[in-house]
UniProtKB/TrEMBL annotation:
This is Uncharacterized protein. It comes from Serpula lacrymans var. lacrymans (strain S7.3).
Amino acid sequence: MEIYRVDPRFRKRVGNNLLVNGQARILHDKQAVYAVVVHNDSDLDLWPYLAYMDTNGFGINLLYHPEPTSTPPPLRRHSFLEIGCGSGNAMSDPLSFPLPEHQQEDSGFLKLFVSTTYTSMGLLEQGSSSLLGVESSVTPRPATPLRQDETRTQKWDTALACLTLTQSMRQGKRVD
């Protein structure tokens, strides 16, 4: 998993990967937007689900949830998927990570789930998504029953990234 700042006008990645050893320290900018790049180095096609976990209100917001009708699965073997760049199968708005006005630093988590079969993850969402500045675009769907042959072959994996947002301070004043 990688995190990049995005040029909002062209919806293209700019700069280097902000995620190093599972952590990203981001200097807060109200205008900044981001994209997450998910890599699949496996020999399997995967269904990815990306959630943001807010440490303030304990909310969980799904940032990416594929459509069940996607064929083939969105994260193909030996490929990558950009979430927040507005391209490919993961066409979505760039992501923002606001910092509450009264705080100098805040943390949250990006949790990536991948599976070899589609699974409705809409029920994972809880609490307020107001910290992300967007309403969830994910509609909870009823659980998809597994066929008997899928129960033996279904595989899961996860990845976790910690985001720490910090304020720029100049002469004791907050700079946005």
